[in-house]
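S1.2 Input.
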Amino acid sequence: MPKIHFITFYSQGAPYDNGLDLSATENNVRTKIQDYVDTFTAYHPKDFANDPEFAWSIQDWSNIDHKYARHPDGWWSPLFNKYIDINTGCDKTGFFAWKAACIIKKMREILEVKSNIKFHHLNSHTNKEDMHSLNNAIVDKMAGDVLLEFRGK
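S1.3 Output.
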């Protein structure tokens, strides 16, 4: 039977990083699903900060160029033609570039033990009509299901 490795990322807030403190959310998710997966890995910015290969994935983009900083009213949505108040702090932790870093880092770790693995990104959003769910649904439509095979040396 295939093993299920759950991978996620969360910011811890000051003094660890410039994002929101999502430690309680991470703990809540871990508690709810850890009995249903083989491994649960929750990365945070300090896992990448001193790694020259992945440090780019958590850069504070608001300090790199002001045009990347979050507007006080939220993020501009061309779809809704207004500001939407979601994902506060994502500009401070790499605009989700950490997703790729998390996947690559975990896949390499698993490949040290197993010679080949399959990665499957599931579209698992709720179809609710609040702004956050709609935004995620748009991303899901753009990404689709992803199934990748990784093979060891």
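S1.4 Remarks. The radius of gyration is 17 Å.
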